[in-house]
Amino acid sequence: MSRVELLAVKITGVLGIAVLLCCAVPTKSKVGRTGGDDQQPTVGFNPSVHCPDATLADLDKINPSVIPGVTQGIGGLPCDAQAEKSGTDLTARLQHGFDYYSWLTFIALNSPAAGAPLGKDAPTVWEGYKQLPDVMLPAGMKPADWSDPNPPVVPHQCVDSFKKGMMIIHLEMEETYNEPFKSGALFDQNGNYALFVILMNRPMFQYIVNHSLYSRRGQEIFPDEVDFPNGSDGSHKEHPEQTVGAVMVKASWRVLRPGVDFDLNNPKLRPKFHMIDGLLYQPEAPEPCRQVKLGLVGFHVGHKTVTRQQWIWTTFEHHDNVPTQEEVDGGLTKGRQYSFYNPDCAVSDCPINQTPPWPWQPEKLKPAAWDPIKHHSSPFKSQIVRMGPSPVFADDDVGKLNKAFHNRLRGTVWENYDLITTQWPSAPCANNPNPGSLPDATCAPFPTFLANTTLETFSQQDKDTGVPLATSSCISCHNNATTQHRPATRSDFTFILEKAK
Amino acid sequence: MTEMSRRTLLASVAATAATAAFGTITIPLPASAEPTPGQDLELFVQLSAKLTGIDARKLAPSIDPIGVKSEYFAAAKKAGGATFDSMLRDFKASSTDETIANFLKPDSDTLYLARSIILAWYLGAWYEPKTLKAEVLRAPNAEANKPSAAEASKPSAEPSKPSARRYNLVRCHIISPATYSQGWVWRVAQAHPMGYGNLEFGYWSKEPPPLDAFIKSES
């Protein structure tokens, strides 16, 4: 080979390498999809599982005692929802199917972390998930690896106060006491804040870690569209895999007073709430770490599946949270005790569904900073009435399911929790893996509006009237969630990513 | 730019809808002559599909969480009364394009009610039939409103502007927040109404989804 020819070979080689480097620059696409996607590498974590049968045969003949998933603990968590088998009205069959799925989800997630079926009150599976502040750490630090259960990141001021099994309630985060979009704080009838926590399961957590989305910087350089792992029950030919997919939980708690709100030794005051030991963390307070007993009052679950790319949205409430307007009008509230309503206070003195007076920050509460231990509580007590949803079907459709599962859970605290309803994307586009390409990325949520009275208290429907994008709707609201990429990109129906630092 | 008066717009919308019935789905209607209460809504949807040129499955999907059809039906029934009932009856007896054309004849009792229905679906607002009729009578082409010969002969200071015309507000009311957000004019425009939209974040910096994605029925 001559010198000229050798030079030509070298130049060609350099040019070839340059072309390869150019082609290797990442372009905007969807990576991280699991199962069934042969064109993209699987970098997430969404292992194969054996999905329980989550198909409702007939709402009118439901018998939870013979449902296998009810006794399988977390193994009973449905991977997706199916329509009810019987019935002629497709919409009703689907709603019944989703509501049945929601009850199975509730039972599985609230099953004891130690592995027993749901029954006696015990630390739950979901309480061992990763809590948002433990993922979105200061300075965008990488979170600790997953473990079962995940111990919380204990602030240094709380090391001496913390005991194993406690849930740390991060009052330095406004989202802990102020409802979405700063719509208001909620006070129970003792003048204590309702407190909110957000957690995620392992597939969702691992996706965030594997793509470095736990930091603002990581999101800024993430070149792709966020696409959390899917749940799949293997019933669709395009998705034969069985996987759980991403699950996120948002729960609301109220502070319970031992001996007053419950007494383990007094049958007349037996606990009616699922209870945990909480550690209130307020870094600027004189006592930054205070132990309290917390009772579960609200429970949201969001679950992404192959058939519902806008996720499935489930919400439960404690039976004693609030009355409905019909119960108020019918005089059915007398003699009852509610967490967020006083039946003995006239509407002229206690107008309903009002936000509290400012300030809402616990440390600025008037007349004294909030301290449930010293009974420094809010003089304002929220007077809340359930305004919606206005169901398309008779209330007793959900009521039938609630009654059936309550019977199964009789004698436990869990019989006091009601499914409100399930919101799901109803249009055929719901299985489109690129909802951002659609004119309606929400794919017609059904029902249109949905609010939990403890979590979306002040954006409930006004009786039968809702205002799109102002009245609470899980899917419509979460459709607007974005990353911290510049320009901002969709974050696949979760606001968790915007909390990265 | 083509000059467009309100009357011209209304007339063109009605005409377009009437002649754009091709491609709509006709579901066989029950045999009995009188519609039963349960069938009225379904008939109304089919009628609306013919009038608007929009597939009935898009107007009223099989799973319909928003249900604006019921609101438009209620508005039409309230405004139309016996005229509305006879429209449904006639449509049930014969759901052909000829029937629709008859509804839209200039001397027909149903002309303005049909236009109200079309406008409701497209704009989410209810225009009373009598208001539309009154507006036609006051339209620029009406004899009383035509410019005088002297006015017409004056050169306009801005050649692109029309000669002086009288324009009046056409009163209507937005039926509900839901109907405001569901007007078909926004879908045809591949856009969204002010203050509402479910396009993905950042849509303003991209081409909108294709028109078919907005208006065609998903199977």
Shape assignment of chain A = globular
Derived structural class of chain B: mainly alpha
Cα distance spanning the termini of chain B: 38 Å
Count of individual domains of chain A? 1
| Main pleated-sheet profile of chain B | 2 strands, antiparallel
The arrangement of helices and strands of chain A along the chain is HHEHEEHHEEEEEEHHEEH
Helix % of chain A is: 10-25%
Q: Residue share in helices of chain B?
A: 40-55%
Describe the structure.
The complex is a heterodimer of chains A (501) and B (219). With 501 residues, chain A is of the alpha+beta class. Chain A is 17% helix and 13% strand. Chain A has one domain. Chain A has helices at 3-23, 90-109, 132-135, 202-210, 216-220, 325-329, 395-408, 474-478; strands at 130-131, 167-170, 195-200, 232-233, 242-243, 247-256, 275-281, 289-303, 312-318, 417-425, 445-446. In chain A, the strands form two sheets. In chain A, strands 1, 2, 3, 6, 7, 8, 9, 10 and 11 form a nine-stranded mixed β-sheet that branches. With 219 residues, chain B is mainly alpha-helical. Chain B has one domain. Chain B has twelve helices and two strands. A two-stranded antiparallel sheet of chain B has the order 1-2.
Short overview:
With 501 residues, chain A is an alpha+beta fold. Chain A is 17% helix and 13% strand.
Topology overview:
The complex is a heterodimer of chains A (501) and B (219).
Chain A: H1 3-23, H2 90-109, E1 130-131, H3 132-135, E2 167-170, E3 195-200, H4 202-210, H5 216-220, E4 232-233, E5 242-243, E6 247-256, E7 275-281, E8 289-303, E9 312-318, H6 325-329, H7 395-408, E10 417-425, E11 445-446, H8 474-478
Parallel strand pairs in A: 2-7
Antiparallel strand pairs in A: 1-3, 3-6, 4-5, 6-8, 7-8, 8-9, 9-10, 10-11
Helix pairs in contact in A: 2-7
Chain B: H1 6-19, H2 37-52, H3 56-59, H4 68-80, H5 82-93, H6 97-103, H7 111-123, E1 125-126, H8 129-137, H9 149-153, E2 173-174, H10 177-182, H11 184-188, H12 211-215
